[in-house]
Amino acid sequence: MATLTPSSPLKIRVDLRDHWENENSPVQKSIAALSQLLGLPVSINLEASMLWADLENYFPDQATFIPSIAGVVKAWTDCLAARLENDANAAWTEQLLELVNQGGRVLRSRIKAATGSRVGTALAATGATFTIAITEAKPPYGNLSSFFATDFEKLFAASTNKILLQSQPVDDQEWANINLPSRTRDYSQIVSTSLPRLDTLACPEVLFESQVPYHMIVKIIHDGVRVHGSHQGSLELLAGYLQKYGRMRENITVKLPILKVELQNSHFGYGVLFDSVSITPTDERASWPTVNPVLILSFVESVLGYSPASYSGGENQWYFRRDIPFNS
User: Fold this and answer.
1) Which of 68, 188, 224, 240 has its C-alpha lying 20 to 30 A from 84's C-alpha?
2) What is the Cα–Cα distance from 73 to 78, expressed in whole angstroms?
3) Helix (H) or strand (E) run with residue 113 in it
4) In a 10 Å sphere around its CB, with 0-12 CB exposed, 13-18 middle and 19+ buried, how is residue 84 labelled?
5) Do residues 70 and 141 make contact, with C-beta atoms less than 8 angstroms apart?
6) Which stretch of DSSP H or E encloses residue 120?
7) Which residues contact 185 (CB under 8 A, 6 or more apart)?
8) Which residues have a Cβ under 8 Å from the Cβ of 76 and sit 6 or more positions away?
9) Tens digit of pLDDT per residue, the chain (328 long)?
10) Per DSSP, what are the bridge partners of residue 45?
């Protein structure tokens, strides 16, 4: 379903007809395939006029607006269909179907503009309706399938973990209080002395979001600096800070940063899981600019709250850990 006011640009109205409402368009075929897989209607609400008002500044070319939105929705429906077809997600699928049944046996979703660094999806606060959030940024939108896969994985993670904990018998003798080492405070938590079952463990992007301790390794390599970490949020904040305050190269026509700071995606998981940050010269032909690692090391300790850990990694490598989880 799409809504559009008469005052909307002509190109938007034409593209809405050709790229969204057309039954033979890729997005409508994908929606139909998802509906057939579920055995239930799928309703995706596109308030095109409102969305255009929110995002028009990021679409100087009107011809890219509706195709871009349709591409995001197709990635959403394709990703959800792929998840539903995977037998390993049977419990997740049952929870989704229960939710849809409570919402009138129709899978509903609406598209909206949202602040943030990426496109994403979530359940609305009330009702069984998904939101597909289009970030307020210029297209193209990358890693759509990975981002949606991550968000779908996290959808019922909290309730699933709670059910699993409630269903597992507790043996008092199998639990013990241990004090985790910290340079600044004491911290204790209850851990099991038994290995968990494989089928109870969430995928890495969910499991390590709050699983402590967090580990981080900073090391100097031949072409730059690389930071490895188990907590994605810590790496994203570090990379964002270095990108924001990185100096630009001088005496060139096009402004480019001296250093290129990039988040590296992990080889594990279903969705997006950044497990390292690379800091390398923007111009590979240029000689390697000297980088003082003290700023990075200080950020890891003072801002992120990690503590140095004893580790024989050599003079060009530093190992940190944090034993207290972040609130978010």
Assistant:
1) 68
2) 8
3) strand 107-114
4) middle
5) no
6) strand 120-123
7) 324
8) 109, 121, 132, 144, 148
9) 566 566 678 889 899 999 999 999 999 999 999 999 999 999 999 999 999 999 999 998 999 999 999 999 999 999 999 999 988 888 889 999 988 888 788 999 999 998 877 899 998 866 678 999 998 888 888 778 888 988 888 887 654 443 333 334 444 444 344 344 444 444 445 556 788 888 778 778 778 877 889 999 999 887 789 999 999 889 989 998 998 888 887 766 667 788 889 888 888 877 778 899 999 888 766 555 567 788 999 999 999 999 998 765 677 899 999 999 888 6
10) 110
Enumerate the β-bridge partners of residue 226.
219, 278
When computed from its CA atoms, the radius of gyration of the chain, rounded to whole angstroms, is 24
H or E element in which residue 287 lies: none
Cα diameter, the chain: 71
CA 156, CA 146: separation in Å to the nearest integer?
Answer: 17
Spatial contact of 274 and 263, defined as CB atoms under 8 Å apart: yes
Q: Which of 197, 188, 189, 201 is nearest to 169 (CA)?
A: 197
What backbone torsions phi and psi does residue 214 show, to the nearest 5 degrees?
-85, 140
Q: Are 112 and 119 in contact (CB under 8 A)?
A: no
Separation in Å, CA 16 to CA 11, 39, 70, 81, 292: 8, 27, 9, 24, 52
**Dist CA 98 CA 244 (whole Å):** 44
DSSP run (H or E) holding 127: none
**Which two three-digit tokens encode residue 203?**
């995928």
CB atoms within 10 A of CB 150: 25
d(CA 305, CA 31): 45
**Separation CA 40–CA 33 (nearest Å):** 11
Q: Which of 110, 106, 147 is nearest to 125 (CA)?
A: 110
